[in-house]
Amino acid sequence: MPLAALPRRDEQARARLAETGEIARPIVHAGERALPVSGELGELIPALRRGSVIAVEGEPGAGATSIALRLAAAATAAGEWAAAVELHGSIGGLAAAEAGVVLERFAVARRVPPTRWAAVVAALLDGIGLVLAEVPPYARVGDARRLAARARERGVVLVGVGGWPAEAALRVWAEGSEWRGLGCGTGLLAARDLGVRVEGHGVPAHGVVPVARAG
Amino acid sequence: MPVAVLERGERGPVVLSASTEARAEGVTTGLRRREAETRCPGLIVADADPHVEARAFEAVARAVEAFTPRLVLDRPGRLAFPTRGPSRYFGGDESLAARVLAAVGEVGTVDARLGVADGAFAAGLAARAATPGTAHVVPAGESPAFLSEWSVAALGDPELADLLTRLGLRTMGAFAALPAPSVLGRFGPSGARAYRLALGLDEHPPALEEPPPELTETAELDPPATQVETAAFVAKGLADRLLERLEVRGMACTRVTIEAETEHGERLARCWRHDGALTPEALAARVRWQLEGWLTGRENSDEDIDVTAGLTLLRLAPDEIVPLDGRQLGFWGGDQAAADRAGRALARVQGMLGHFGELVTPVLQGGRTPAERVRWVPWGDPREPLRPVDAVRAPGANVAEMPPWPGALPDPAPARVFDLPLAAEFLDRDGQPVVVSGRGDPSAPPARLRCAELPGGGGDIAAWVGPWAHDLRWWDRKTRARCARWEVVVTPGVACLVAVTGGHATVEAIYD
After folding, report:
1. DSSP secondary structure string, A107-168?
2. Looking at the whole model, is its pTM more than 0.80?
């Protein structure tokens, strides 16, 4: 086949194709701009707005990681990708699967040096639907604001875990939990009542989430 | 000695090739590892290493090059060349085949198999039909008859083969008897390609046009590259650029010539091909294999090797290009676009982290503890568990069984699992450390847990259960691991997984 007879797939042709795609794209309703949160946590936080920042805080063992993983599960359930940025590397993969995260679309950057933290999070915001970022101690407010602006521009949910230093659309506190099912030498960890406080627009202020089988 | 080389298949290791002794016991290509070991007790298995194979195969390629300059490599271990000229010169196909086998035997490959037929595909199957160390020659014009007996599985397209078998077309002869327009209409371009193969034709109609010279990609190496890594890095960039430019023209490359020049002015060239179009990864792998052959081969060989100095120039020239008809992207993007975007972002992060950190993805696998039950796979590697998580079928058994993990910790899983467990003190009511006896009985019920990382430094234990005593690999003194684990809830409501090994307590995980 002569080369000249083939349709050229150059930049111009691609741009035209992309334009036609934009025109013919189905309408996106406001509801679809949000990622619905399922399960018990969904009663407190019905949906995550794309492009917003959510700060999750809590002492070790209070349940902050479980909450963050459930938010990541909301993203992967909608077909989006999720990534976590960790300073040391301790997120439990099994707990992520139990929280409902689709592991095929979940990546974890581990042992990220604090000096490169902002650059790594920024790079992930370019292509991932939801980024869980463990915030290093003494993170700069300026960095956090730049990342928030980038998340807004790209329509990505940014979840800061532990001490987010800037403004956030939602602030979630894990306020300790009560475990059920375990006695002294008997029973097993079966369920927990997770105290969660949420501040932000359009959400109930306070609640206790009964979570069955959650680590 | 029966030997089999394994490669990673979709569901675990499968046999890539086997020695004559192993074949005699019924070990065939594509067999699962367990099945192969069952059929042939005492089988020695080794993992395939294409880089080592490429180095070893370079000697074979050199031996064949003495007969014809027009050889085309497929992968390490397999090469093809057109026979019309050489056959006439050496007095026929049989005579040529005997000479080539003798030359290859001189460089140490005694069980090479050789096939002669009307096309590259039929010749490949003829080589498979030959016994090691001999040649199978299909007379001119009889290739369709030779092919008609083969199963459609030999077409190399498992999905299509499965479909054809279910339609009752078990052999290539039956498939080739269908009318051509119906094949294209029902099975699409990939079916039409397979149909051409079944007819004994080449995969593509012969390209009448030479690829234009401006498509050639060249890179000069300064300083000259003596290491494979250095040259392969440059070659990766060349491969990406070449295929990108071809894609803009709507073309794909099926055969590429890799050329190199050295400091001493030597010129090297070798042609490689691939079934279907070359992807950037497949092309980069072939360039790497060739570089292994050129650069590594000269160190451990005293033959008259062409490469005496570092490479100063690398060139990738497309040798055969065909219209690109394979891929159609979704119109509105959708999941594929999201996956591409995510893939690009993750590749960038992987580059940024370098040796500081790592980008990984979790894969669930079998095991007892939360840490064991997850394998963190580097991003981009195949997501395969080391230990099966689902039911597996034992060799010879009819029913699949769940692998037992006695003493596995129950759900739920902790959300924080530490690579390096946190040092802790695990004390009973009298302030003595809790330990376990050789039979797994605890010395006393635990009462306090101290750990600097817990809020308030730990505290009294409100509830506990355990121990789960694990005595792993007790048959091996070096890797034996004994450990006892407890689930505890420390006031005020922090649940942890505590492990005691050799009298030392650690917090392995927190249910955060």
Report:
1. EEEES--GGGHHHHHHHHHTT-SEEEEEPPTT--HHHHHHHHHHHHHHT-EEEEES---S--
2. no
